[in-house]
Amino acid sequence: MQTLQTILRLLLTLLYCRISASQGNRVYIHPFHLFAAENVTCETLQTQSNKHLETPVATLPVAPLDIEVLTPSSRGPSEESVQKQNITERTSVLAALSNAIGLRMYHALSSNQHSTNTFLSPINTYGSLVTFCLGASKKTASLFQFLLGLSSDTDREDCVSLVDGHKVLKTLQSINSLADDGPKDEITTQVWAFTRQDVQLSEEFIQGTHDFSDASFIRSVDFSNPQAAKDLVNSFVEKTSAGKLNNLFKNLNSSTDLLFISSFNFQGSWKTAFQPQKTSLQEFHVDETTTVMATQMTHTGRYYYLNDKVRQCIVVKLPLSKRYLYMLLVLPHKGAKLDGIESELHSNIMFDWHQSLKEGLLELSIPTFSLSSVTDLHDLLTNMNPKVETKLLGSQAKFSQLSNSTAFTIDKAVNIVLFEMSGEEVEHEEKIHEEGVPLTLSFNRPFFFSVFEGHSNAILMLGKISNPAL
User: 33: Cβ–Cβ under 8 A, 6 or more apart, which residues?
Assistant: First the structure.
Protein backbone atom coordinates (compact mmCIF):
# COMPACT_ATOMS: atom_id res chain seq x y z
CA MET A 1 0.00 0.00 0.00
CA GLN A 2 2.76 2.43 0.99
CA THR A 3 4.68 1.72 -2.22
CA LEU A 4 1.63 2.46 -4.37
CA GLN A 5 0.91 5.67 -2.48
CA THR A 6 4.53 6.74 -2.97
CA ILE A 7 4.20 6.19 -6.73
CA LEU A 8 0.95 8.13 -6.88
CA ARG A 9 2.23 10.95 -4.65
CA LEU A 10 5.19 11.43 -7.00
CA LEU A 11 2.76 11.59 -9.92
CA LEU A 12 0.64 14.15 -8.07
CA THR A 13 3.67 16.33 -7.37
CA LEU A 14 4.49 16.42 -11.09
CA LEU A 15 0.85 17.15 -11.94
CA TYR A 16 0.56 20.06 -9.53
CA CYS A 17 3.85 21.56 -10.75
CA ARG A 18 2.59 21.49 -14.35
CA ILE A 19 -0.83 22.83 -13.42
CA SER A 20 0.73 25.65 -11.42
CA ALA A 21 2.95 26.54 -14.38
CA SER A 22 -0.02 26.56 -16.75
CA GLN A 23 -1.93 28.95 -14.47
CA GLY A 24 0.57 31.74 -15.20
CA ASN A 25 0.03 34.70 -12.86
CA ARG A 26 -3.34 33.48 -11.60
CA VAL A 27 -3.70 32.50 -7.96
CA TYR A 28 -3.24 28.75 -7.70
CA ILE A 29 -6.13 26.83 -6.13
CA HIS A 30 -5.56 23.20 -5.15
CA PRO A 31 -7.77 20.93 -7.31
CA PHE A 32 -9.31 19.25 -4.27
CA HIS A 33 -10.78 22.52 -3.01
CA LEU A 34 -12.39 23.23 -6.39
CA PHE A 35 -14.26 19.92 -6.42
CA ALA A 36 -14.84 19.12 -2.73
CA ALA A 37 -18.35 18.94 -1.37
CA GLU A 38 -19.48 21.60 1.09
CA ASN A 39 -18.44 20.97 4.71
CA VAL A 40 -16.26 18.03 3.65
CA THR A 41 -14.54 16.13 6.45
CA CYS A 42 -11.75 13.57 6.58
CA GLU A 43 -13.53 10.20 6.81
CA THR A 44 -11.83 7.32 8.62
CA LEU A 45 -10.59 4.54 6.35
CA GLN A 46 -11.72 0.99 7.04
CA THR A 47 -9.00 -1.14 8.65
CA GLN A 48 -8.47 -4.88 8.97
CA SER A 49 -9.59 -4.81 12.62
CA ASN A 50 -12.64 -2.72 11.79
CA LYS A 51 -14.64 -4.73 9.28
CA HIS A 52 -18.00 -3.01 9.64
CA LEU A 53 -19.64 -2.02 6.39
CA GLU A 54 -19.38 1.56 5.23
CA THR A 55 -22.43 3.80 5.17
CA PRO A 56 -25.26 1.83 3.51
CA VAL A 57 -25.61 2.83 -0.10
CA ALA A 58 -28.90 4.04 -1.61
CA THR A 59 -29.68 1.77 -4.56
CA LEU A 60 -32.14 1.62 -7.43
CA PRO A 61 -33.54 -1.38 -9.31
CA VAL A 62 -32.15 -1.89 -12.80
CA ALA A 63 -34.40 -2.56 -15.78
CA PRO A 64 -33.77 -5.89 -17.50
CA LEU A 65 -32.13 -5.76 -20.90
CA ASP A 66 -34.80 -5.89 -23.58
CA ILE A 67 -33.53 -5.65 -27.15
CA GLU A 68 -36.78 -3.95 -28.15
CA VAL A 69 -36.43 -1.16 -25.56
CA LEU A 70 -33.59 1.09 -26.75
CA THR A 71 -34.37 4.30 -24.84
CA PRO A 72 -31.64 5.69 -22.55
CA SER A 73 -32.08 5.53 -18.81
CA SER A 74 -34.15 8.43 -17.51
CA ARG A 75 -32.44 11.47 -16.05
CA GLY A 76 -33.76 14.30 -13.92
CA PRO A 77 -34.81 17.62 -15.49
CA SER A 78 -32.12 19.53 -13.60
CA GLU A 79 -29.36 17.57 -15.35
CA GLU A 80 -29.92 19.21 -18.72
CA SER A 81 -28.71 22.60 -17.47
CA VAL A 82 -25.15 21.37 -16.87
CA GLN A 83 -24.44 20.71 -20.54
CA LYS A 84 -23.53 24.34 -21.35
CA GLN A 85 -21.26 26.21 -18.95
CA ASN A 86 -18.87 29.11 -19.17
CA ILE A 87 -15.13 28.71 -18.71
CA THR A 88 -14.27 28.68 -15.02
CA GLU A 89 -11.24 28.05 -12.85
CA ARG A 90 -12.66 24.58 -12.27
CA THR A 91 -12.77 23.89 -16.02
CA SER A 92 -9.16 24.95 -16.62
CA VAL A 93 -7.75 23.02 -13.67
CA LEU A 94 -9.64 19.85 -14.54
CA ALA A 95 -8.47 20.12 -18.16
CA ALA A 96 -4.87 20.32 -16.94
CA LEU A 97 -5.34 17.25 -14.73
CA SER A 98 -6.98 15.29 -17.53
CA ASN A 99 -4.21 16.29 -19.94
CA ALA A 100 -1.43 15.15 -17.63
CA ILE A 101 -3.06 11.82 -16.74
CA GLY A 102 -4.11 11.30 -20.36
CA LEU A 103 -0.55 11.74 -21.64
CA ARG A 104 0.75 9.29 -19.03
CA MET A 105 -1.89 6.76 -20.07
CA TYR A 106 -1.12 7.38 -23.72
CA HIS A 107 2.57 6.64 -23.08
CA ALA A 108 1.59 3.36 -21.41
CA LEU A 109 -0.55 2.40 -24.43
CA SER A 110 1.87 3.55 -27.11
CA SER A 111 4.88 1.82 -25.58
CA ASN A 112 3.07 -1.50 -26.04
CA GLN A 113 1.82 -0.75 -29.58
CA HIS A 114 4.96 -0.17 -31.64
CA SER A 115 3.63 -1.18 -35.05
CA THR A 116 -0.06 -0.38 -34.62
CA ASN A 117 -2.06 2.83 -34.38
CA THR A 118 -2.73 4.20 -30.89
CA PHE A 119 -5.74 6.30 -29.99
CA LEU A 120 -7.03 7.62 -26.65
CA SER A 121 -9.39 10.27 -25.31
CA PRO A 122 -8.03 11.69 -22.01
CA ILE A 123 -11.41 13.28 -21.24
CA ASN A 124 -13.31 10.03 -21.73
CA THR A 125 -10.85 7.88 -19.79
CA TYR A 126 -10.72 10.36 -16.91
CA GLY A 127 -14.52 10.42 -16.75
CA SER A 128 -14.74 6.63 -16.58
CA LEU A 129 -12.36 6.51 -13.62
CA VAL A 130 -14.27 9.24 -11.78
CA THR A 131 -17.51 7.30 -12.32
CA PHE A 132 -15.91 4.18 -10.78
CA CYS A 133 -14.75 6.30 -7.85
CA LEU A 134 -18.41 7.06 -7.03
CA GLY A 135 -18.96 3.36 -6.31
CA ALA A 136 -15.67 2.63 -4.56
CA SER A 137 -15.04 2.05 -0.87
CA LYS A 138 -13.33 4.94 0.91
CA LYS A 139 -9.93 3.24 0.73
CA THR A 140 -10.23 2.47 -2.99
CA ALA A 141 -11.72 5.92 -3.65
CA SER A 142 -8.72 7.53 -1.95
CA LEU A 143 -6.41 5.76 -4.43
CA PHE A 144 -8.56 6.81 -7.38
CA GLN A 145 -8.28 10.40 -6.15
CA PHE A 146 -4.49 10.06 -5.90
CA LEU A 147 -4.30 8.89 -9.51
CA LEU A 148 -6.71 11.55 -10.77
CA GLY A 149 -4.90 14.39 -8.99
CA LEU A 150 -7.90 15.17 -6.77
CA SER A 151 -6.60 14.22 -3.32
CA SER A 152 -6.55 16.63 -0.42
CA ASP A 153 -3.03 17.58 0.65
CA THR A 154 -4.03 17.73 4.33
CA ASP A 155 -5.44 14.22 4.91
CA ARG A 156 -3.93 11.95 7.53
CA GLU A 157 -2.89 8.42 6.56
CA ASP A 158 -5.93 6.91 8.31
CA CYS A 159 -8.61 9.01 6.63
CA VAL A 160 -9.69 10.47 3.31
CA SER A 161 -11.54 13.60 2.22
CA LEU A 162 -13.69 12.82 -0.79
CA VAL A 163 -14.34 15.16 -3.68
CA ASP A 164 -17.79 15.58 -5.18
CA GLY A 165 -17.50 13.29 -8.20
CA HIS A 166 -20.62 14.80 -9.76
CA LYS A 167 -18.94 18.22 -9.93
CA VAL A 168 -15.99 16.61 -11.71
CA LEU A 169 -18.13 14.75 -14.23
CA LYS A 170 -20.34 17.76 -15.02
CA THR A 171 -17.22 19.85 -15.60
CA LEU A 172 -15.84 17.24 -18.01
CA GLN A 173 -19.11 17.28 -19.91
CA SER A 174 -19.03 21.08 -20.04
CA ILE A 175 -15.61 20.85 -21.72
CA ASN A 176 -17.13 18.59 -24.36
CA SER A 177 -19.97 21.08 -24.81
CA LEU A 178 -17.47 23.84 -25.67
CA ALA A 179 -16.34 21.84 -28.70
CA ASP A 180 -19.86 20.78 -29.57
CA ASP A 181 -21.48 24.18 -29.92
CA GLY A 182 -22.45 24.41 -33.56
CA PRO A 183 -23.61 22.57 -36.67
CA LYS A 184 -20.34 21.01 -37.83
CA ASP A 185 -18.25 19.54 -35.00
CA GLU A 186 -20.11 17.07 -32.85
CA ILE A 187 -19.09 15.10 -29.75
CA THR A 188 -21.36 12.37 -28.45
CA THR A 189 -20.59 10.49 -25.24
CA GLN A 190 -22.53 7.33 -24.38
CA VAL A 191 -22.27 5.02 -21.38
CA TRP A 192 -23.53 1.45 -20.97
CA ALA A 193 -23.57 -0.46 -17.67
CA PHE A 194 -24.78 -4.07 -17.59
CA THR A 195 -25.20 -5.66 -14.17
CA ARG A 196 -26.30 -9.09 -13.03
CA GLN A 197 -29.99 -9.58 -12.36
CA ASP A 198 -30.01 -10.03 -8.58
CA VAL A 199 -28.53 -6.65 -7.58
CA GLN A 200 -29.47 -3.00 -7.52
CA LEU A 201 -26.99 -0.26 -8.44
CA SER A 202 -26.28 2.80 -6.33
CA GLU A 203 -28.02 6.08 -7.10
CA GLU A 204 -24.63 7.82 -6.97
CA PHE A 205 -23.16 5.60 -9.67
CA ILE A 206 -26.22 5.82 -11.92
CA GLN A 207 -26.28 9.60 -11.50
CA GLY A 208 -22.59 9.66 -12.41
CA THR A 209 -23.24 7.94 -15.73
CA HIS A 210 -25.82 10.64 -16.49
CA ASP A 211 -23.44 13.47 -15.52
CA PHE A 212 -20.74 12.04 -17.76
CA SER A 213 -22.74 11.31 -20.92
CA ASP A 214 -25.28 12.47 -23.45
CA ALA A 215 -27.07 9.13 -23.03
CA SER A 216 -26.58 6.27 -20.58
CA PHE A 217 -28.05 2.79 -20.77
CA ILE A 218 -28.30 0.91 -17.45
CA ARG A 219 -29.59 -2.65 -17.79
CA SER A 220 -29.57 -5.96 -15.90
CA VAL A 221 -28.60 -9.18 -17.67
CA ASP A 222 -28.91 -12.88 -16.96
CA PHE A 223 -25.28 -14.01 -17.21
CA SER A 224 -26.03 -17.65 -16.34
CA ASN A 225 -25.85 -18.44 -20.08
CA PRO A 226 -22.66 -16.52 -21.08
CA GLN A 227 -23.08 -17.09 -24.83
CA ALA A 228 -26.66 -15.82 -24.88
CA ALA A 229 -25.69 -12.89 -22.62
CA LYS A 230 -22.81 -11.96 -24.93
CA ASP A 231 -25.04 -11.99 -28.01
CA LEU A 232 -27.73 -9.95 -26.26
CA VAL A 233 -25.31 -7.31 -24.92
CA ASN A 234 -23.47 -6.99 -28.24
CA SER A 235 -26.71 -6.62 -30.16
CA PHE A 236 -28.03 -4.00 -27.74
CA VAL A 237 -24.82 -1.92 -27.89
CA GLU A 238 -24.80 -2.10 -31.69
CA LYS A 239 -28.41 -0.88 -31.94
CA THR A 240 -28.05 1.91 -29.37
CA SER A 241 -24.78 3.15 -30.96
CA ALA A 242 -26.44 3.50 -34.39
CA GLY A 243 -24.44 0.52 -35.64
CA LYS A 244 -21.03 2.04 -34.82
CA LEU A 245 -20.02 -0.54 -32.17
CA ASN A 246 -20.11 -4.13 -33.39
CA ASN A 247 -19.29 -7.43 -31.67
CA LEU A 248 -17.68 -5.61 -28.73
CA PHE A 249 -17.38 -8.57 -26.36
CA LYS A 250 -15.86 -11.84 -27.54
CA ASN A 251 -16.68 -13.81 -24.40
CA LEU A 252 -18.35 -13.39 -21.01
CA ASN A 253 -18.69 -15.65 -17.99
CA SER A 254 -21.51 -16.60 -15.66
CA SER A 255 -19.93 -14.88 -12.62
CA THR A 256 -19.98 -11.40 -14.19
CA ASP A 257 -21.06 -8.58 -11.84
CA LEU A 258 -20.74 -5.50 -14.07
CA LEU A 259 -19.76 -4.58 -17.63
CA PHE A 260 -18.96 -0.90 -18.22
CA ILE A 261 -18.58 0.76 -21.63
CA SER A 262 -18.02 4.39 -22.48
CA SER A 263 -17.76 5.76 -26.01
CA PHE A 264 -16.46 9.13 -27.23
CA ASN A 265 -17.60 9.84 -30.78
CA PHE A 266 -16.07 12.88 -32.49
CA GLN A 267 -17.28 13.94 -35.92
CA GLY A 268 -15.56 17.06 -37.15
CA SER A 269 -14.79 19.18 -40.18
CA TRP A 270 -11.69 21.00 -41.34
CA LYS A 271 -11.96 24.77 -41.28
CA THR A 272 -10.55 24.73 -44.82
CA ALA A 273 -11.07 21.57 -46.86
CA PHE A 274 -8.40 19.55 -48.61
CA GLN A 275 -8.86 19.62 -52.39
CA PRO A 276 -10.67 16.49 -53.62
CA GLN A 277 -8.75 16.64 -56.91
CA LYS A 278 -5.52 16.35 -54.96
CA THR A 279 -6.51 13.23 -53.02
CA SER A 280 -4.55 10.20 -54.19
CA LEU A 281 -2.93 6.92 -53.18
CA GLN A 282 0.63 7.48 -52.03
CA GLU A 283 3.33 5.48 -50.31
CA PHE A 284 3.41 5.53 -46.50
CA HIS A 285 6.67 4.31 -44.95
CA VAL A 286 5.72 2.27 -41.89
CA ASP A 287 9.39 1.58 -41.15
CA GLU A 288 12.69 1.17 -42.98
CA THR A 289 11.52 -1.97 -44.76
CA THR A 290 7.69 -1.71 -44.88
CA THR A 291 5.67 0.49 -47.23
CA VAL A 292 1.89 0.59 -47.65
CA MET A 293 -0.38 2.57 -49.95
CA ALA A 294 -2.53 5.18 -48.20
CA THR A 295 -5.08 7.76 -49.32
CA GLN A 296 -3.38 11.14 -48.84
CA MET A 297 -5.21 14.50 -48.87
CA THR A 298 -3.32 17.56 -50.09
CA HIS A 299 -3.86 21.27 -49.63
CA THR A 300 -1.68 24.29 -50.39
CA GLY A 301 -2.25 27.24 -48.11
CA ARG A 302 -1.04 29.19 -45.13
CA TYR A 303 -0.57 27.18 -41.93
CA TYR A 304 1.01 27.76 -38.57
CA TYR A 305 3.93 25.41 -38.10
CA LEU A 306 7.22 24.94 -36.25
CA ASN A 307 10.47 23.11 -36.97
CA ASP A 308 11.66 21.87 -33.57
CA LYS A 309 15.33 21.08 -34.17
CA VAL A 310 15.90 20.06 -30.54
CA ARG A 311 13.23 17.34 -30.56
CA GLN A 312 13.75 16.63 -34.27
CA CYS A 313 10.19 17.11 -35.46
CA ILE A 314 7.89 19.43 -37.37
CA VAL A 315 4.65 20.59 -35.73
CA VAL A 316 1.66 21.78 -37.79
CA LYS A 317 -1.60 23.29 -36.53
CA LEU A 318 -4.77 22.43 -38.42
CA PRO A 319 -7.82 24.53 -37.46
CA LEU A 320 -11.09 22.65 -37.26
CA SER A 321 -14.50 24.15 -37.87
CA LYS A 322 -14.73 25.91 -34.52
CA ARG A 323 -12.61 28.92 -33.80
CA TYR A 324 -10.93 27.35 -30.75
CA LEU A 325 -10.84 23.71 -31.86
CA TYR A 326 -7.65 22.54 -33.54
CA MET A 327 -5.36 19.62 -34.25
CA LEU A 328 -1.60 19.49 -33.73
CA LEU A 329 0.31 17.13 -36.02
CA VAL A 330 3.86 16.11 -35.07
CA LEU A 331 6.05 14.60 -37.79
CA PRO A 332 9.54 13.31 -36.85
CA HIS A 333 12.42 14.42 -39.04
CA LYS A 334 13.60 11.78 -41.48
CA GLY A 335 15.71 9.32 -39.52
CA ALA A 336 14.23 10.36 -36.14
CA LYS A 337 12.05 7.94 -34.18
CA LEU A 338 8.49 8.78 -33.15
CA ASP A 339 8.74 6.90 -29.84
CA GLY A 340 11.69 9.07 -28.83
CA ILE A 341 9.60 12.20 -29.33
CA GLU A 342 6.58 10.67 -27.59
CA SER A 343 8.63 9.74 -24.52
CA GLU A 344 9.30 13.44 -23.87
CA LEU A 345 5.77 14.66 -24.46
CA HIS A 346 3.91 16.46 -21.71
CA SER A 347 1.32 19.20 -21.84
CA ASN A 348 3.76 22.08 -21.26
CA ILE A 349 5.84 21.07 -24.29
CA MET A 350 2.72 20.93 -26.43
CA PHE A 351 1.59 24.37 -25.26
CA ASP A 352 5.09 25.75 -25.88
CA TRP A 353 4.86 24.42 -29.43
CA HIS A 354 1.52 26.13 -29.89
CA GLN A 355 2.83 29.48 -28.69
CA SER A 356 5.91 29.25 -30.94
CA LEU A 357 4.12 28.48 -34.23
CA LYS A 358 4.79 30.78 -37.17
CA GLU A 359 2.65 31.19 -40.27
CA GLY A 360 4.00 29.99 -43.61
CA LEU A 361 3.01 28.61 -47.00
CA LEU A 362 2.78 24.81 -47.02
CA GLU A 363 1.82 22.13 -49.49
CA LEU A 364 0.51 19.74 -46.88
CA SER A 365 -0.37 16.06 -47.42
CA ILE A 366 -1.88 13.91 -44.68
CA PRO A 367 -3.69 10.55 -44.61
CA THR A 368 -7.48 10.58 -44.44
CA PHE A 369 -8.72 10.65 -40.86
CA SER A 370 -11.15 7.99 -39.77
CA LEU A 371 -10.04 6.11 -36.67
CA SER A 372 -11.45 3.99 -33.88
CA SER A 373 -10.01 2.33 -30.81
CA VAL A 374 -11.15 0.04 -28.02
CA THR A 375 -9.16 0.31 -24.78
CA ASP A 376 -9.54 -2.17 -21.92
CA LEU A 377 -9.03 -0.11 -18.74
CA HIS A 378 -7.81 -3.15 -16.79
CA ASP A 379 -5.03 -3.55 -19.37
CA LEU A 380 -4.33 0.17 -19.51
CA LEU A 381 -3.81 0.47 -15.75
CA THR A 382 -1.68 -2.68 -15.79
CA ASN A 383 0.53 -1.13 -18.47
CA MET A 384 0.92 1.96 -16.29
CA ASN A 385 1.75 -0.09 -13.19
CA PRO A 386 0.40 -3.54 -12.21
CA LYS A 387 0.03 -2.42 -8.59
CA VAL A 388 -2.21 0.44 -9.70
CA GLU A 389 -4.54 -1.93 -11.57
CA THR A 390 -4.71 -4.35 -8.63
CA LYS A 391 -5.72 -1.60 -6.21
CA LEU A 392 -8.12 0.29 -8.47
CA LEU A 393 -9.90 -2.30 -10.63
CA GLY A 394 -8.28 -5.63 -9.79
CA SER A 395 -8.38 -8.13 -6.97
CA GLN A 396 -7.82 -5.63 -4.14
CA ALA A 397 -10.32 -3.01 -5.35
CA LYS A 398 -13.45 -2.68 -3.22
CA PHE A 399 -16.70 -1.30 -4.61
CA SER A 400 -18.90 -1.30 -1.51
CA GLN A 401 -20.75 1.83 -2.70
CA LEU A 402 -21.62 0.51 -6.16
CA SER A 403 -24.48 -1.87 -5.38
CA ASN A 404 -26.42 -3.57 -2.61
CA SER A 405 -24.03 -6.53 -2.85
CA THR A 406 -21.15 -6.68 -0.36
CA ALA A 407 -18.83 -8.32 -2.91
CA PHE A 408 -19.03 -6.61 -6.28
CA THR A 409 -16.48 -6.20 -9.08
CA ILE A 410 -16.11 -4.28 -12.32
CA ASP A 411 -15.37 -7.24 -14.56
CA LYS A 412 -14.90 -5.40 -17.84
CA ALA A 413 -14.32 -1.68 -18.35
CA VAL A 414 -13.94 -0.52 -21.93
CA ASN A 415 -13.36 2.92 -23.44
CA ILE A 416 -14.10 3.44 -27.12
CA VAL A 417 -13.06 6.40 -29.25
CA LEU A 418 -14.48 7.05 -32.72
CA PHE A 419 -12.98 9.84 -34.81
CA GLU A 420 -14.07 10.93 -38.24
CA MET A 421 -13.18 14.11 -40.13
CA SER A 422 -15.44 15.27 -42.93
CA GLY A 423 -13.85 16.46 -46.16
CA GLU A 424 -16.25 19.40 -46.31
CA GLU A 425 -14.98 22.87 -45.59
CA VAL A 426 -16.71 25.16 -43.13
CA GLU A 427 -15.40 28.40 -44.58
CA HIS A 428 -15.10 28.86 -48.32
CA GLU A 429 -11.50 29.72 -49.11
CA GLU A 430 -11.15 32.28 -51.85
CA LYS A 431 -8.74 31.33 -54.59
CA ILE A 432 -5.86 33.74 -54.21
CA HIS A 433 -2.36 33.76 -55.59
CA GLU A 434 0.11 32.82 -52.87
CA GLU A 435 3.50 34.46 -53.23
CA GLY A 436 6.56 32.28 -52.88
CA VAL A 437 7.26 28.59 -53.18
CA PRO A 438 5.41 26.45 -50.63
CA LEU A 439 7.28 24.10 -48.33
CA THR A 440 6.23 20.55 -49.23
CA LEU A 441 5.37 18.56 -46.13
CA SER A 442 4.05 15.01 -46.45
CA PHE A 443 2.96 12.99 -43.44
CA ASN A 444 4.01 9.77 -45.13
CA ARG A 445 5.65 8.12 -42.13
CA PRO A 446 4.50 7.48 -38.52
CA PHE A 447 3.34 10.64 -36.77
CA PHE A 448 1.60 11.83 -33.63
CA PHE A 449 -1.52 14.01 -33.38
CA SER A 450 -3.70 15.61 -30.74
CA VAL A 451 -7.02 17.48 -30.78
CA PHE A 452 -7.41 20.47 -28.44
CA GLU A 453 -10.34 22.49 -27.20
CA GLY A 454 -8.69 25.89 -27.07
CA HIS A 455 -10.99 27.62 -24.55
CA SER A 456 -10.04 25.25 -21.74
CA ASN A 457 -6.79 23.92 -23.30
CA ALA A 458 -8.20 20.41 -22.83
CA ILE A 459 -6.79 17.59 -24.95
CA LEU A 460 -9.80 15.77 -26.38
CA MET A 461 -7.82 13.08 -28.22
CA LEU A 462 -4.27 11.76 -28.52
CA GLY A 463 -3.07 9.36 -31.18
CA LYS A 464 -0.35 8.09 -33.44
CA ILE A 465 -0.65 6.78 -36.96
CA SER A 466 1.89 4.02 -37.46
CA ASN A 467 0.12 2.40 -40.38
CA PRO A 468 -2.91 4.10 -42.02
CA ALA A 469 -3.75 0.85 -43.82
CA LEU A 470 -4.73 -0.85 -40.55
Answer: none
Other residues' Cβ atoms within 10 Å of the Cβ of residue 302: 13
pLDDT of residue 79: 46
Specify the DSSP class assigned to residue 163: B
pTM of the model: 0.89
pLDDT of residue 434: 56
Nearest Cα neighbor of 287 from 337, 341, 342, 340 is 337
User: What pLDDT, in 10s, does the model give residues 231-275?
Assistant: 999 999 999 999 999 999 999 999 999 999 999 999 888 877 676
Regarding beta strands 412-425 and 258-270, do their DSSP bridges make them parallel or antiparallel, or are they unpaired?
Answer: parallel
Residues near 445 by Cβ (< 8 Å), separated by ≥ 6?
284, 285, 286, 331, 332, 334
pLDDT tens digits along 397-414: 999 999 998 789 999 999
Helices (H), 268-361: 338-342, 347-356
Burial of 191 (0-12, 13-18, 19+ CB in 10 A): buried
Residues 6+ apart with CB under 8 A from 200: 59, 60, 61, 62, 403, 404
Tabulate helix, strand, coil % of the chain (nearest 5).
30, 30, 40
Amino acid, single-letter form, for residue 51: K
CA dist., res. 236 & res. 193, Å (int): 12
Q: Using CA atoms in the order 60, 63, 64, 65, what is the torsion angle rounded to 10 degrees?
A: -120
